[in-house]
């Protein structure tokens, strides 16, 4: 350990738990400190550079984007306008928002009570249900794809995103799991106090437990939102033949096929797909980091 | 942690004022009814979207079925074809195995190494963590499209930068020998969620252990080997199991890379010519299952492939359920 290490930083906060002034560095420790920071800086540059090059190319003239130039010669924001006319981008965006928002809302309705019941109300069969949820969460979706597809096709809903949205009304395995894990960390005392005051089980859940579980529920919601926003396999399976139903990530995958050499436009579209993700991340940064740490490895 | 009051059950038994609603039904019973109502939708979902399809997949796998006429029983024909005659399935399975064996460990090692660097610092750790975490949120499709551009041999910045050093860059996503390694680079770029999990684990390692080891004369590597790794072993196990399960279904990155690098329409839009491009180097098992089932409408055969995938994944599921404590139901308090 170098001399700079003090107390371990708290996960989920930007500040170390204990702030101590770094000791004066001498000799080997100084060298190690420099080497470590140089390595970290180099890695950070490598990790950031893909995004930088994508953004640069997205504002190049489409002819310049075909050359080996790294820096744009002029600022061509027209690419961002052009892609809206070359692809039904507004529709795709609307589809994505609909898919992500409805999925998340539907998931919450079913998964929050289920996660709570599995964590806090012991009842016969709860262990079996929990194990089934773990299996469902880990099972590759391709295993069940054929019969599920047949079901949706008999309902006449293929060619739309509904086969991906509606199942959330019946809970989402990973979300139930995550929410249950969070409820496990909440003490039962408050719930018991509310019960003594005559609250019903639903009242306990709604007025006592949900407010305390907000961080865990938020993490589950954001994860599902991103899973839907980023989904490619689902829309490919159910909506690939109907361009009007495509979400934007799926449209991006096909864009280059149609506009073969248009790297500038493709990169502009990539940026358009990326931006909301980055914005949501910075709005809810803390939720993410806590949620990931929660997602399975605790204890 | 059921309290005494709950165990005693009805308000009458406790002498406490009863709840206003339906006082006749004892508390314990009402609690059971509420619990059942809370899990009912989820249980229905498990039955409709998991239990029934699993059984139906097994049934379909013994049939010839094209969605338009009813399934016709063909016995073991699908399995026979799968294991002996399907021309591309062997290659597809090997490619998937390649991702399991190469991608998963590389991602874990890189995530652990970067988490190790971050765990040692106190100032600005939030900034560094964000830099390495953020790419993992990038939609995989956008990540692939960006990487195919970055690595494209014509104008891609990677080969341009390599050119500064006098290195003639390879064809990357268009070279059958390098297409999978190129996707590993993408996987490394997107390892952030794994890194955060590792970081949480590393910060949980008690510092006294390092101090004790250091007093005993352990050098840096020995501290990693005998203190860090054994302590975070559960996290490593979790990462391996979930990583392998994800690699078994490796689909999006490979399919999109093939279609974008070949410059033609995507898998779903009807052209099978981009499938696995270049060569068959990016054709994975799940892509082949998709093509068989949903491009060719050989749903019986696709079901047989799904059953084989299920059997393979089951082995991992069993390991996961036994070894990962978060997956144990007994924790319920």
Blueprint of the fold:
The complex is a heterodimer of chains A (299) and B (333).
Chain A: H1 27-58, H2 78-86, H3 89-120, H4 126-138, H5 145-154, H6 162-165, H7 173-184, H8 189-196, H9 201-212, H10 214-230, H11 233-239, H12 248-258, H13 263-283, H14 285-294
Helix pairs in contact in A: 1-13, 2-13, 3-7, 3-10, 4-7, 7-10, 8-9, 10-14, 12-13
Chain B: H1 4-8, H2 11-14, H3 27-60, E1 63-64, E2 72-73, H4 77-84, H5 89-119, H6 125-133, H7 140-150, H8 157-164, H9 179-189, H10 192-204, H11 207-215, H12 220-231, H13 233-248, H14 252-262, H15 285-295, H16 299-323
Antiparallel strand pairs in B: 1-2
Pfam family, one (chain B): BPD_transp_1
Organism (chain B): Labedella populi
Subcellular location (chain B): Cell membrane
Largest sheet of chain A: none
- Ranges of chain B where pLDDT stays below 50 over 5 or more residues in a row are 1-18, 266-271
Overall pLDDT score of chain A: 86
CATH homologous superfamily assignment of chain B: MetI-like
Radius of gyration of chain A: 24 Å
CATH topology grouping of the largest domain in chain A? MetI-like fold
List the domain count of chain B as a whole number: 1
Order of helices and strands of chain A: HHHHHHHHHHHHHH
Average pLDDT of chain B: 87
Spatially, the strands of the biggest sheet of chain B line up as 1-2
